[in-house]
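To: structure desk
From: M.T.
Subject: fold request, one chain
Message: Could you run this one when you get a chance? Sequence is below, nothing fancy, just the single chain.
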Amino acid sequence: MRRSYPLFCLSLLLPAVTWPATAASRSEWKAGVATVDITPAKPIWMAGFAARKKPSEGVARRLYAKALALEDRRGQRVVIVTSDLLGFPRAVAEPIAERIGRQYRLRRDAILFSSSHTHSGPVVRESLTSMYALDGQQAAAVLEYTAALQDKVVEVAGAALKDLAPATLSLGFGEAPFAVNRRTKKETGYVISPNPAGPVDRRVDVLKVEGAGGRLRAVLFNYACHNTTLGGDNYQIHSDYAGVAQETLETAHPGVTALFMLGCGGDANPDPRGTMALVDTHGASLAAAVDKVLAGGMRSLSGPLRPVFDRVNLPFAPAPPREEWQARLKSKDVYQQRHARDMLAILDRDGRLPSSYPYPIQVVRFGKDLTMVALAGEVVVDYDLRLKKELGAERLWVSGYCNDVFAYIASKRVVQEGGYEAATSMIYYGQPGPWAPEVEEVLIGKVHQLVRKLK
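Reply: Done. Structure tokens follow.
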């Protein structure tokens, strides 16, 4: 039975959790970091907003992929790759994982891909297929960029593994104020608009990596808010608030690599939003929250390092019959038309539409001190709040947008309420329809199963 919980900001209950530092063996961990520039070299269609009608026009802030490699005293390794991208779809992520695994002898469960979900980065292939009307030249540019991106991600993972050196790891939590729930109920249903009374998690998770002599080498941080301070009227490549926060930290701590992961921010937006000045404001606010945690007491993490990766079939609601798709071909909405064409093509090829999606879930356990849950897709905050209640907030890190970004992951509540995250977004992502109401129990149940496997 699902446990109920009120709609609140979790950080009001956990404003800033810190622990006194404890002694840890200097040989407990090894860590390595690396960075590669993934800024498009030429104009390219930008990801995330259907309103855009042309390719990018210049670069306001460069984009990066970064890797943090970790190894425990047994030799178990995990590589976390972060990126200034809307997301890695499965068709892009899995070939990268295969290459990294083959070249560096890593199992799939030891390779984690994460994206900041900036809406001012490039389109990559097979992502939001019904959203963009690319001509032949633009489609070719996306394919060319994606191929180069895959090479660079393999490169940065390898560089981080080669950089492994003795390290200590510490965990702490802080808070940043600008995430606000974006689902507001109107007479016509739920719309995207700031809802200060809605559920949100403003906690900032911080993993500190120190090298010899206590020198700060890297900081990995997690925040549950859409990386969308800039809107569809922006045509300059930009990493948004997450990129500003990373650069601010790296400037304040020379020689440090700052890496960002996005939490379950599917239904949270920065507030306010819309200007370059606000990007800088939110980025500085997040960086300040991380710095405050770094300056306070943090809990040392012990091993062993234990990863697990598996998939579970998330069920779709029953899809409409062929006649309904044929009728949608006559819609005045071009996105409905494209979506209907895609669904009819699948029906012609396979005779049916998919009834479920093979959803990847990854869990990385740091001894008894931290469990990192990496969820795929644009996960709404209900999953974050529920897992923290059921598994214990003080030793749990929950990220969305990991390994495969292919749809919004609505909770049972959001599915029942409807709106963009529950229904309309599936058109742009090329999925056959909304999730079935039981999607939440299926996903949460699989997380619990994987966590139990690592105990």
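Reply (cont.): The two ends are 23 Å apart (CA to CA). Let me know if you need anything else for the meeting.
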